[in-house]
Amino acid sequence: MTCRHPNIQRNEKKRKEKLLDLRPPTIGSLPPSLDIPSPPSKKPQAHHISESTLLNLFKSQQDHLNYFFPNLDLSQALSFTETLLNSRGTIFFSGVGKSGFVANKISQTLVSLGIRSSFLSPLDALHGDIGALSSADILVLFSKSGSTEELLRLVPCARAKGVYLISVTSVSNNALANACDMNVHLPLERELCPFDLAPVTSTAIQMVFGDTVAIALMGAKNLTKEQYAANHPAGRIGKSLIFKVKDVMKKQDELPVCKEGDLIMDQLVELTSKGCGCLLVIDEDYHLLGTFTDGDLRRTLKASGEAIFKLTVGEMCNRKPRTIGAEAMAVEAMQKMESPPSPVQFLPVIDHQNVLIGIVTLHGLVSAGL
């Protein structure tokens, strides 16, 4: 057997030790001096605001808004309103940031009043949307400072299209006002923000101004309630002024009809299957004779017992039910159902000759959004 030289054995030992040092340490072999972060022992402290602090903020905002009204130049506001009223084209609104949101909202309010209006993004305008402008149009630019760069870049391009330019600002002698054909100054005492930076009072003033002008235009154009409703057909206001009974009533095969000589017990399926909670009693010519409800059924059963099997609908029906015409407004039907002495869940719909043509139910009115 050959023996290794002592120096070779020492070198191999050192090499093995180095290899062991290069291995990643296991959790159990971490040195005790290494600091491992421990999970936080306490939850982050919750922030609170006192009722008095909130009340003071509301009062301060009220004071800032109250500064606006007596200091507004009514001659400017009137000129602005009359200019919009006499517009031959579309009234465009534009703005950046929070003022842009306000401008968009005011534009939508005018649209809901039947006035041609639209919001024009200043950025998109410079990339093609300015093509919507014509010489008959008005462009209203909302900016608190009047130095909004995007609006200042838009002005010469819009002017080249022959548009009438109006700025609505809150800082005196600003660049935007000087570049436009008309300026409306909205007096601003200061922002509610403690740093006087966040636009929370200035935007409120813009909204108040724009919406008030919108209502002035509404009055000047003599917009009727019916015309307003026609612009809101999906809303409850519109439905209440547009929908008639004939638009929401059940008719023909949907009607739970029977003859006065029919036995009550023979008509239970008809009473329950049509979802109206009643029977409409008619003669051979479809004239309405009365109504019989599921409530009448319960009362008859309680009072008559087994005798109910021999009773006819005509013997127990209500001969003087509330009725309504097909041309009546649907909201009138709801009011009639809820009127004294006691509310009802349905109204038979008849023509001028007392011929049954339909039924309107409370459930149907509610489902229609009324």
Automatic annotation (TrEMBL):
The record marks K98, E150, E191, H232 as: Catalytically relevant. PANTHER family: ARABINOSE 5-PHOSPHATE ISOMERASE-RELATED, PTHR47476. The keyword Nucleotidyltransferase does not apply. Residues 80-223 form the SIS domain. Residues 23-46 are annotated as: Disordered. Belongs to the SIS family. GutQ/KpsF subfamily. GO terms for molecular function: carbohydrate derivative binding; isomerase activity. One of its GO terms (biological process) is carbohydrate metabolic process. This is Probable arabinose 5-phosphate isomerase. The lineage of its organism: Eukaryota, Viridiplantae, Streptophyta, Embryophyta, Tracheophyta. The gene is LOC111306444. Pfam families: CBS, SIS. Keywords: CBS domain, Isomerase, Repeat. It comes from Durio zibethinus. Residues 249-308, 317-370 form the CBS domain.
